[in-house]
Design a protein that fits this description.
429 residues, globular, disordered N terminus
C-alpha cells in the first residue's frame, strides 16, 4: 500500500434509520426542556397532505447522499487536490461536530422563523453548498462540507417534528417513509458516486450531481408548506427539575451512546478506504458501504419493539457488541476473504444505535427526565464521537498500517459492550 493510500480518509455519514429516531428523540428532548419546539393547532396538524409528505420524503432522501458521496471517493478527491492527511481527517469529523451543535441552533432558529421556513432555507443552503464545495481547492471543499453538514443537521432535527405535527394520525406511515428514504439515499450516494466518478472522469461533477436531489426537495417543500402557518414556540415546561449530571446511570448511558456513535462514525468513515487498502476497487468498496447502510433498515424497524418487550436490555447490548466485534475482527484479519459478511455483521452491530435510544426512554421515569437524558447523551456523545474518525486516521498515518487503528476500534467496541450491559439493567434514574 502506498503512502497516499495509507493517508486517505472517507467522510462519515450520520448513518442509518437510527438517525431519524435520534433526531426525533433530540426534538422531543428540546420540547421537554422548553427549547423552542412548536405545538401546532389541531387544524394545522391535520393539514399535512400528499405534497407535504412528498416533500418530507425528498428532504429525507437528502440527509445522507451529500456526505456518503464524498465518503466513497474522498481518497481520489484528496489526491486530486493534493490535500494533507490532516485535512482528510478533519473532513471526517465535520458531520459529527455539526450534529453535536444542531440541537442548539435548530430550535433557536425555528423559534424565530418557524420550522417550515428553517427547513426550506436549509434545503436551499444544501443545494448551493454542494455546488460551491466543488469549485475550489481543499479549503473550499472543507468549508462547503461544513455548510452541507450544518444544513443536514438542521433538517435532521426539525423534519421529524414536522412529521409528528403534520401527520398525527399517520405518524407510523410518515416516519417509515422518511426513514426509508433517508437510508436509501445514503446507500445510493455511496454506491452510485464511484460509478459517476468513473463515467464522468471528474469527481467534481460526480459530487455536484447530488444537488439535483436537494433542489427537487426544495421545489416540493416550498409549495407543500406554503399554506401552513409557522409554529408557535412554547415556553419552558413548568415545575421543578433535577439535574441528571450527578446521576451515575445517566453518565453510563451517555458513555454508551458516545462509544457506539464513535465506532459507527469510524466504520462509516473509513470502511471504503480499509477495503481499498486491502486491494479492493473503489466501486466495490463504495457498494459495501451501501450494503452496510441498507442492512440497518429492516433491523432497525423491528429491533425497538422487541427490545421494549424485555425487562432488561443487557443481552441485546451484548449481542450488538459481539456482532460488531466479529465484523471488525474479520475486517482486520482477512478483509477480502468474506467482505460482504464483514459488512453485514458490522451493519447489524450498528443497531446498537437504536438500542441506545430505547434505553434512554426505558431508564427514565418521566418525560422530563427522558428529555434531559436524551439531550445530555446525544450532545456529549456526538462531540466525543467527532474525535473518533480523526484519531483513527491520525493513528493510521503514524503507524502506516491499519492494524493499530483496527485494534483501537475493537477496544472501543469492548468498552461499549461493557457499558451497554451495565446500562441495560432494569432500573431507572
Amino acid at each position: 500500500m502506498t503512502d497516499q493510500d495509507a493517508s486517505r480518509a472517507a467522510a462519515p455519514t450520520p448513518g442509518t434509520l437510527a438517525d431519524d429516531a435520534s433526531a426525533l428523540a433530540a426534538a422531543e428532548a428540546l420540547v421537554n426542556e422548553g427549547a423552542a419546539e412548536a405545538i401546532p393547532s389541531r387544524r394545522r396538524a391535520a393539514a399535512g397532505g400528499g405534497l407535504l409528505l412528498a416533500g418530507v420524503a425528498l428532504a429525507a432522501a437528502n440527509m445522507r447522499p451529500a456526505v456518503t458521496s464524498l465518503a466513497s471517493i474522498l481518497g481520489e478527491v484528496r489526491d486530486s487536490l493534493g490535500a494533507s492527511s490532516t485535512w482528510a481527517s478533519v473532513v471526517t469529523s465535520v458531520p459529527t461536530l455539526c450534529f453535536g451543535v444542531a440541537g442548539i441552533g435548530a430550535p433557536l432558529l425555528a423559534r424565530r422563523w418557524g420550522m417550515n421556513r428553517v427547513v426550506g432555507a436549509s434545503l436551499a443552503l444544501l443545494t448551493a453548498a454542494m455546488v460551491v464545495r466543488v469549485l475550489g481547492g481543499p479549503a473550499t471543499l472543507l468549508a462547503g462540507t461544513v455548510l452541507v453538514c450544518a444544513s443536514i443537521a438542521m433538517c435532521n432535527v426539525l423534519i421529524p417534528v414536522v412529521v409528528k405535527e403534520s401527520f398525527p394520525g399517520r405518524v407510523g406511515l410518515a416516519t417509515g417513509l422518511y426513514t426509508t428514504a433517508m437510508a436509501a439515499g445514503g446507500a445510493t450516494g455511496s454506491a452510485i458516486t464511484p460509478w459517476l466518478n468513473s463515467a464522468s472522469g471528474s469527481w467534481r461533477w460526480s459530487l455536484a450531481t447530488w444537488m439535483v436531489v436537494a433542489l427537487a426537495a426544495l421545489c416540493v417543500w416550498v409549495p407543500g408548506t406554503r399554506k401552513r402557518p409557522a409554529s408557535t414556540a412554547v415556553g419552558a415546561v413548568k415545575g421543578e427539575r433535577r439535574s441528571l449530571m450527578r446521576s451515575p446511570l445517566a453518565w453510563v448511558i451517555t458513555a454508551y451512546f458516545a462509544m457506539q456513535s464513535t465506532i459507527a462514525y469510524v466504520v462509516m468513515g473509513w470502511l471504503p478506504e480499509v477495503f481499498k487498502g486491502a486491494g479492493m476497487d473503489a466501486t466495490s468498496a463504495g457498494a459495501l458501504l451501501g450494503v452496510l447502510l441498507l442492512i440497518g433498515v429492516p433491523i432497525n424497524m423491528v429491533l425497538p419493539p422487541l427490545v421494549t418487550r424485555t425487562r432488561g436490555q443487557s443481552g441485546w447490548a451484548l449481542l450488538m457488541g459481539a456482532l460488531m466485534f466479529a465484523g471488525l475482527l474479520g475486517l482486520l484479519l482477512a478483509p477480502l476473504s468474506a467482505p460482504v459478511l464483514w459488512a453485514v455483521l458490522i451493519g447489524l452491530g450498528m443497531s446498537a444505535f437504536p438500542l441506545a435510544l430505547v434505553m434512554i426512554s426505558l431508564r427514565t421515569r418521566n418525560a422530563a427526565d427522558t428529555g434531559q437524558l436524551s439531550a445530555m447523551s446525544q450532545s456529549i456523545g456526538y462531540l466525543i464521537a467527532a474525535s473518533g474518525p480523526f484519531l483513527f486516521g491520525m493513528l493510521h498515518d503514524v503507524t502506516a498500517t491499519w492494524t493499530f487503528s483496527m485494534v483501537a476500534a475493537l477496544v472501543i467496541v469492548a468498552v461499549q459492550t461493557v457499558l451497554g450491559v451495565v446500562a441495560g439493567r432494569p432500573r431507572t434514574i
